[in-house]
Design goal:
Keywords: ATP-binding, Nucleotide-binding, Transport. The protein is α/β, with parallel strands linked by helices. About 30% of the residues lie in helices and about 25% in strands. The structure holds adenosine-5'-triphosphate. Adenosine-5'-triphosphate binds next to strand 2 and helix 1.
Length: about 230
């Protein structure tokens, strides 16, 4: 699905990523785990072609990066600007029109995110968790094969956090590959099938979540203070 090969990124004197290589299997819920400043957002920016790496290469779907691939990737790296006084469905219609999608696709994503019953409610009446679910619904319009999320539960209340984690698990079960940055070890344990752990821009380890998090050398690698 996605392969990174020796990606490095500097901001002046700061080495944000240093020789990072890993692969994201198709159908995985893949956590990019690391403390603040470890390079997670930089990494997502590079694979979305928003930032240029100083060194290294990556490929999506086994192909070098290309504009056409953008249609196959949904992203929440930039939060959509929803209109507060429009309904959920009306807000989605705006993105659907841009992407050339119809009412059936809007219905699909509203049902997937369990917002169908609330489709005619104004965005301003939504809880934080519902707003985030609508943002995910918006990113899922057009049926992307992979969804990119940066700290998707940040700033949410406990109910919202539970809703979003449940939704991410469901998306994975239904076959969407999800790549999500998180600084929360327990979130990755609960939600992800695979993980790559970054610390100060260096990849400590990556692989299946059960194997990586069970490894005895996790503490030696310094992952205890994530
Ligand atoms: P956070 O969760 O705090 O966003 P992160 O793991 O996503 O952390 P990055 O935001 O990718 O990490 O930052 C990695 C390093 O690069 C940090 O030291 C950060 O200060 C630095 N950095 C990020 N963006 C810039 C920038 N535009 N200019 C200079 N330094 C930057």
């Amino acid at each position: 699905m996605l392969s990174l090969h020796q990606i490095s990124k500097r901001y002046g004197a700061i080495q944000a990523l240093n020789d990072v290589s890993f692969s994201v299997p198709q159908g995985s819920v893949f956590g990019v785990l690391g403390p603040n400043g470890s390079g997670k957002t930089t990494l997502l920016g590079i694979i979305m072609d928003v930032l240029k790496a100083n060194a290294g290469t990556y490929s999506w779907f086994g192909l070098p990066p290309h504009e056409d691939q953008r249609k196959r990737i949904g992203s929440l790296l930039e939060t959509p600007n929803f209109y507060h006084y429009y309904s959920a469905a009306r807000n989605l219609q705006i993105t659907a029109a841009i992407k050339g999608r119809g009412a059936d696709d809007i219905e699909r994503v509203l049902k997937l995110t369990e917002l169908w019953e609330r489709r005619d409610s104004k965005f301003s009446t939504f809880s934080l968790g519902m707003k985030q679910r609508l943002a995910i619904a918006n990113a899922l319009l057009g049926g992307p094969e992979v969804l990119l999320l940066d700290e998707p539960t940040n700033g949410l209340d406990p109910a919202g956090i539970a809703e979003i984690r449940e939704l991410i698990r469901k998306l994975g079960q239904e076959g969407t590959t999800v790549i999500m940055a998180s600084h929360l070890l327990d979130e990755v344990e609960k939600v992800c099938t695979h993980v790559a752990i970054l610390k100060k821009g260096v990849l400590l380890t990556s692989g299946h979540v059960d194997e990586v998090l069970a490894a005895e050398d996790m503490i030696e690698m310094g992952a205890n203070d994530l």
